[in-house]
Amino acid sequence: MIKDNCNHNGCCDNHCTSYNCKGNDMAETTTTPTAAEACAGPDVQAFRTFMSAHALLVGAIESAFAAAELPPLVWHNVLTLLAEAPEGRMRPHELADALVLSRSGLSRVLDRMEAEEVLGRERCSGDRRGTYAVISDTGRDLLARMNPVYRNTVELHFFPHLGGDAESMRVALERVADSAREACPVDPGAA
């Protein structure tokens, strides 16, 4: 059964990110598990726990930003990437790929951020139709106010549970992201 937020082939769209999954990329099994068996076992439970933890941590960060009267997490993510980029600027498609957002979803976020003057857009000299998103001084100031709230929330709810092995966790999650990206790349043109 396809859920309301899924397209005809079962790939989901969370209104910010769209995935163009290929059903034939899924590993074939020699036996067909029952519905109960398909989502059982410690490996599947670990994945489900990871997904719950991710959603709850994102919610905790969003709540902390709201309590501090700061913009949402996606703004922090955009500003962080821009602040770390050479000359404080990136092409929108690069931002969308890095954030795993559709280009249209990111465009709406950038429009709101530009209206608040935390970033601007500059024409790309090598591509007359292309633009860069560029962090402004106001954006750098906002990021400086957001960073402690972000850091404190992550320190409270994430770091203590790593057992001092953040680097191994980062490497493992990068491998997961790379594997998933190959099987189900973000569709850059989807809404």
User: CATH architecture of the domain at 71-183, please?
Assistant: Orthogonal Bundle
CATH overall fold name of the domain at 71-183: Arc Repressor Mutant, subunit A
**CA-atom Rg in angstroms:** 19 Å
Query: Which percent range fits the helix content?
Result: 40-55%
Number of strands: 3
The run of helices and strands is: HHHEHHEEHH
Structural class: mainly alpha
- Main sheet attributes: strand count, strand direction, barrel closure: 3 strands, antiparallel
Assembly form of the protein: single chain
Strand content: 5-15%
CATH homologous superfamily annotation of the domain at 71-183: Winged helix-like DNA-binding domain superfamily/Winged helix DNA-binding domain
Number of contiguous helices? 7
End-to-end Cα distance = 22 Å
Please state how the strands of the largest beta sheet are arranged side by side. 1-3-2
What characteristic shape results from the CA principal axes?
globular
Structure explained in plain terms:
The protein is mainly α. The protein has a domain at 71-183: Winged helix-like DNA-binding domain superfamily/Winged helix DNA-binding domain (Arc Repressor Mutant, subunit A). The protein has 7 helices and 3 strands; from the N terminus they run αααβααββαα. A 3-stranded antiparallel sheet has the order 1-3-2. The longest helix has 26 residues, at 42-67. The protein starts with 34 loop residues before the first helix and ends in an 8-residue tail after the last helix.
SSE inventory with pairings:
Layout: H1 35-38, H2 42-67, H3 73-84, E1 89-90, H4 92-99, H5 103-115, E2 119-124, E3 127-135, H6 137-157, H7 166-183
Antiparallel strand pairs: 1-3, 2-3
Helix pairs in contact: 2-6, 3-6, 4-5
